[in-house]
Amino acid sequence: MPELARAEGARITSAADAIREATELAMAQDECVFVMGEGVTDPKGVFGTTLGLRERFGEDRVLEMPVAENGWTGAAIGAALAGQRPILVHQRVEFTLLAMEQLVNNAAKMHYVSGGKHRVPITIRLIVGRGWGQGPAHSQSLEALFAHVPGLKVVMPACARDAKGLLLGAVADDGPVVIIEHRWVHYAQGEIDPGWAPLPLQGPRKLTSGDDVTVVATSYMTLECQQAVAALADAGVGVELFDLRVLRPLGVEAIVQSVRKTGRLLTVDTGHASYGIGAEVIARTVAGAFDDLRAAPQRIGLPEHPTPSSAALSQHYYPRSPQVAARIAELVGLPAGTRDAIVARLAHSREDQPLDIPHPSFKGPF
Amino acid sequence: MSSPHEMAPRATMMQTVVGPDERLALLTAMIRVRRIEERIAKEYPRGQMRCPVHLSIGQEAAAVGACAVLRRHDKITSTHRCHAHYLAKGGDLQAMIAELHGRASGCCGGRGGSMHLFDDDAGVVASVPIVGGNVPLGVGLALAAKQRRDGSVAAVFFGDGALEEGVVHESANLAATLRLPVVFVLENNLYSVYTRLEQRQPPRSMSRFADAHGMPAMEIDGNDVLSVRGAMLHAVTRARRGDGPSLLVAHTYRQLEHCGPADDDHLGYRPAGELSRWAARCPIQRLCNEMLEHDEIDESALDTIEATIAREIDEAFVAALAAPFPAAHTIAEAIHA
Question: What backbone torsions phi and psi does residue A41 show, to the nearest 5 degrees?
Fold first, then answer.
């Protein structure tokens, strides 16, 4: 990431390790912080993100939960109203659907309804599954549902630095923050800042600069976009790539400024395209950069059907870097031959590995 | 008793010895809730309180009896029918009446209305209008109390309808597993809006749910404030000792319509004679008669109590009507903490 100077003491780690480190730091910093969830004390420790916490902080602060998501989400809200700062962990986004009542009616509204007197400082970690046949109810990226609700903040880290910094920022926030972690982002290696390094929950991050097209991606799709952008750079296409990072509150000013320059916009979601985050980004950007648009904005997202389990089907379900590159090439009017060569090269680079596990090239470091 | 639900066989008398001073305090608190609700009902048709109201008339004993043994720093959560709980726990009357009037001086600054009464100073942490939705909040308050070792307990009020909600059982299971200092206070008033208990639940004991969740239960006459108080004392003592949660099932009756100020017996959803039968078991009249019989109170003392309450209510309505509405420019404030 060229925009980021290497911080003193920065080191390389996976996003999963960064999450574990952030949790440990937050718990050490403030004894009101505690972790709760199904599996947070089990031998796997939620993909390693909660390992060792119970040994260090004890059973009162790392709470194994019954399989009762709405109940313990409500309990987390109650504890937060009494001054605690729980971190809730769900191994799949879908489990949280059972807790939407508490999240939407109580967590999101308490501060507003009480005229600012009540605070609900809870952090809710959700994990998006992908690959290895996760299927229709273990792979959904439902960020748009959460981002629809005023009072919630919603963030999606795409790199280790954000996985750590945004989690620390979320725990420090006095309101409810939903962090949606893509399972494949857990593997992404990258630099993290040392020590207590919370990042503000605001604004996208520009990853590459370019004059031809603006691309806005979320979560894991940022990694796919980085590959597409690199391939297009070889053909002289300048892409300004943004990792959206924070979905609510949504800051689009940097994106609007970029589109005023490039005149072209593509959004790339991890969720369904319809009613998705890309739709919101496009609506706001068009309002701010209408006169500078040179082409109709485009969006890429998941198709309008559930995720099939079989790898034979799911390989046709998820958009990847070749599709992203093809769409960008069309937006900027790249000759068909050049476009096809780039797409073929990207596709070829993936042929050595099955598509239902994270490709080694996505492990970074990023 | 027309229904097995109205008084189950496990009903126990939980009265403990209560001195005259406390009986007077219980009586006064119940009369106060009743008069406040009656005044809301009387003023409601004027259209100044522009929000739904779910009045507690007939159910005062459960709220007053349970809150009588709670300390100020103990916490409660309540439901859409929260007026009695809020008042019994010590919630500020002027802030409540102002909230019903949508005024800036309301307990939620006019943002919550009658179904969102809270008063942090009094330990009324939240009232929420989704059935069962307040129950896990109370469990969380108890979790925080245990983690912070602040010695407080939490009480959660809910109705018979909430017993049909999964989240109530999730909450009870969690509270029992973690041995949290919380008391579940179930007020069975027999109706969910217009739908009678028999249409929603099979004939069976409500208190046995506690067995399923590994906690003790006490089933009591919810119109007998002394029984409620006695059972609650038992449950709160247990919670404070670190022995975990309990369930109280208080059988009582909602005398007015589900939502609004009126008598609705003419709609015919209540069996003939049921309302008058329960009205004859008025919790206030019951304690009052007993105290009159024992010369613990006389008509003149009652007049003084009534006059004091009337004055307080007058003042609350005058203050509410004089208070400013929240300013339009504040509508988008305090979305994020």
Answer: -115, 5
**Cα–Cα separations (whole angstroms), residue A268 to A273, A354, B202:** 8, 22, 52
Measured between CA atoms, the residue of chain B closest to residue A61 is B147
Q: Which residues of A are catalytic?
A: 69, 138
Write out the E strands in chain A. 11-14, 33-37, 62-64, 85-90, 123-128, 153-155, 177-182, 189-192, 205-208, 213-217, 239-243, 246-248, 265-272, 298-302
Give pTM, 2 decimals. Answer: 0.95
Domains and CATH numbers, chain B: 20-317 (3.40.50.970)
**Cβ-Cβ contacts under 8 Å for B270 (sequence gap 6 or more):** B191, B196
User: Other C-beta atoms within 10 Å of A131: how many?
Assistant: 16
pLDDT of residue A361: 80
User: What tokens does A149 get?
Assistant: 């609700």
Answer whether A260 touches B (CB < 8 Å).
no
Structure tokens at A67: 């399989």
Amino acid at B88: A
> What is the spatial distance between Cα A311 and Cα A327, in angstroms, rounded to a whole number?
24
A219/A235 Cα distance (integer angstroms): 26
Contacts (Cβ under 8 Å, ≥6 apart) of A1: A159, A205, A207, A366
- The residue written with tokens 């006459």 in the block is B221
Strand, coil or helix: B179: coil
* A234 contacts chain B (CB < 8 A): no
Token representation of residue B170: 């999730």
Question: What domains can you pick out in chain A, each with its CATH number?
Answer: 11-192 (3.40.50.970), 205-352 (3.40.50.920)
Cα A163 from Cα B3, distance rounded (Å): 58
Token digits of residue B139? 């469990």
Sequence letter at residue A14: S
Name every residue in B having a CB less than 8 A away from some CB of A. 75, 77, 108-109, 111-112, 116, 118, 120, 125-126, 128, 130, 133, 135-148, 154, 166-167, 169-171, 173-174, 177-178, 333-337
**CA-to-CA dists, residue B312 to B92, B97, B277, angstroms:** 11, 11, 31
Residues B228-287 pLDDT 10s: 999 999 999 999 999 999 999 999 999 999 999 999 999 999 999 999 999 999 999 999
Quote the percentage of chain B above a pLDDT of 70.
96
Complex confidence, ipTM: 0.94
Q: Which residues pair with A241 in a beta bridge?
A: A208, A215
Nearest to A78 among B116, B138, B148 (CB): B138
Q: Report yes or no: A113 at the B interface, CB cutoff 8 Å.
A: yes
Return the residue of A nearest to B123 by Cα.
A82
Bridge partners, residue B114, by sequence: none
Contacts of B56 (CB under 8 A, 6+ apart): B33, B37, B63, B81, B83, B84, B254
Which residues in chain A are closer than 8 Å to B142, comparing Cβ atoms?
78
The distance of A249 to chain B (nearest Cα, Å) reads: 10
Give the DSSP letter of residue A106. Answer: I
A349 burial via Cβ count (<10 Å: 0-12, 13-18, 19+): middle
Residues of chain A with pLDDT under 50: 1-5
CA separation for the pair A316, A303 (Å, rounded): 10
Residue A81 CB contacts under 8 Å (≥ 6 apart), including other chains: A110, A118, A119, A120, B125, B126, B137, B140, B141, B144
Could A81 and B137 be called an inter-chain contact, meaning their C-beta atoms sit closer than 8 Å? yes
Residues 6+ apart with CB under 8 A from B208: B217
Whole-angstrom Cα distance, residue B29 to residue B68?
A: 9
What does pLDDT average to over chain B? Answer: 95
Torsion angle, alpha carbons of A287, A289, A295, A297, to 10: -50
Strand B246-251 relative to strand B182-188: parallel, antiparallel, unpaired?
A: parallel
